[in-house]
Amino acid sequence: MYSVYGIGNPLLDFVTHQKEEFVQRLQTRPGTMNLVSAEEMAEILSRVQQYCNIPGGSCANTIRGLAWLGGDALPPPVYSGAVGDDERGLCYRRIMEATGIVQRLAVKESATGCSLIVVTPDRERTMFTHLGACRELGPADIDYRLLKQCQILYFTGFMWDSECQKQAALEAADFAIKHEIPIAFDLADPFVVERYGREFKSWIPGRVKILFGNEEEVKLLLQNEAVEGDLSAAAGELAETVLIKTGAGGCLLVEGSSVQHVPTAAVAAVDTTAAGDCFAAGFLLSRLRGLSSLKSAEQANRLASAIVTVDGCDFTLIERGDVSWEGE
User: Fold this and answer.
1) Best label site of 42, 47, 202, 249, fewest CB within 10 Å?
2) Nearest one of 121, 115, 128 to 29, comparing CA atoms
3) How distant is the alpha carbon of residue 276 from its chain centre?
4) Is residue 218 classed exposed, middle or buried when 0-12, 13-18 and 19+ CB atoms within 10 A define those classes?
5) pLDDT tens digits for 152-189?
6) pLDDT greater than 90 at residue 13
7) Highest mean pLDDT among 49-63, 127-141, 258-272
8) Count of beta carbons in the 10 Å neighbourhood of residue 298
9) pTM value?
10) CA distance 192 to 217
């Protein structure tokens, strides 16, 4: 058995700290993910003097979090995506394997994708992403033999940004449903929901067992169906378990008509990169270990709170004991 089969965009992250004016000059809304061309990425990177490199991609962050926190107590996770036949791609594959992840990365002719993550003094992060080879992932790149041996299938709304990626995710989802493998899905980003919200709203019910999204994303998804103050009630009709992330407020756990606010501890945030990705890792890990949804949400908050105290999604900077799982 394997734990979670993740499908995502393998991206090499460039993390940089800049003033708010940097984002303003690029005419971008702070806190969002923006797709850019290779030329645009090169131009933006030319404005950056200092940065650090960390392997990233939303789903990859979640899978790395699972492998890091789960250790030997959890079967290894599997990760599928597409990288280029270049040095970045080779480096990415080596790092994923070194963390205990079973990688099923397809190698394409395009360059490995990358993402510039701009962290401003308010601790918000704005991303500029060139997907590169990521966009070429297709249904044939999914290892269905391994997927059949996994306990959960996980992917995000970012898979809708190219038709072949979308088809890869949808065919994997159909396979998972056929073999009674639960699907966990993250709405990913407000702009993603703005682009594909109607498709998500039609596809999620009856297929997704665990749904992740922050308040803005869930509001965009539900649009006029949720009256003011009743967001969670409408969200409860989307999936069996819905986690609405509220930032420093923790999250709302919605299961049918049951709504519970799960607070989180206050921390000194440095960089909010991957907070949502780590939230998903903490929740999925705990559910796989048999914890209740409430205890799993508490673990999700704990890991998300820890990752925002360091630059980027770098688990080596966190003490595992501070976020270790506690049984019931």
Assistant:
1) 202
2) 128
3) 6
4) buried
5) 999 999 999 999 999 999 999 999 999 999 999 999 99
6) no
7) 127-141
8) 21
9) 0.90
10) 9
Distances in Å between the Cα of 237 and the Cα atoms of 131, 142, 206, 257, 297 are: 33, 30, 10, 9, 19
The alpha-helical segments, DSSP class H, found in the chain are: 20-25, 38-45, 58-70, 87-98, 144-147, 163-178, 190-203, 215-222, 231-235, 275-288, 293-307
Locate the domains of the chain by residue range: 2-9+57-109+135-322
Q: Which residues does residue 113 pair with via DSSP β-bridges, in sequence order?
A: 11
DSSP-derived secondary structure for 216-263 = HHHHHHHGGGS-TT-HHHHHTTT-SEEEEE-GGG-EEEEETTEEEEE-
**Structure tokens that stand for 223 in this block:** 């649009």
Within 13 Å and on the Cβ side, how many CA atoms surround 159? 30
- In this predicted structure, what is the pLDDT of residue 227? 47
The one-character DSSP state at 147 is: H
Q: How far from the centroid of its chain's Cα atoms is residue 90's Cα?
A: 22
CATH 3.60.40.10 fits 2-9+57-109+135-322, yes or no: no
What is the 8-class DSSP label of residue 311? Answer: S
Query: How do residues 253-262 score in pLDDT, each as one tens digit?
Result: 999 989 999 9
- What mean pLDDT is predicted for residues 60-86? 94
Terminal Cα distance for the chain, rounded: 24
197: Cα separation from own chain's centroid: 17
